Amino acid sequence: MMLSPDQAEADLSWTQSDPESILNGLKSAGCTSDEPAEGEDRPKCKSEQPLSREEKRRRRRATAKYRSAHATRERIRVEAFNVAFAELRKLLPTLPPDKKLSKIEILRLAICYISYLNHVLDV
Fold first, then answer.
1. Measured between alpha carbons, how far is 121 from 123 in angstroms, rounded to an integer?
2. 0.90 cut: is pTM over it?
3. Model confidence at 45: pLDDT above 60
């Protein structure tokens, strides 16, 4: 709960569990209503500070529209990643040539092939 500058901390008793006294404390802290407005989860308070940049980002990322856009971007990224591995795979000699290799196998084979080509150039 936010305290207004003209209100002392001693005015609010944090040990009170009586709902009526808590409600009175909220009203004295600047809340306009004890019931949330239409479409709101909680009552609006005058003393609420604007959201921080991080909180705004967190709320924006929680929307279905954002999640959908993020999933689309991720699919495109993974697809490009897989295309790059397929192109690298075409450049590597293996027997049989159509043998299915995992990504780590493609990388290891590429390292060995580059080392072999360096060796050939040095001789």
1. 6
2. no
3. no
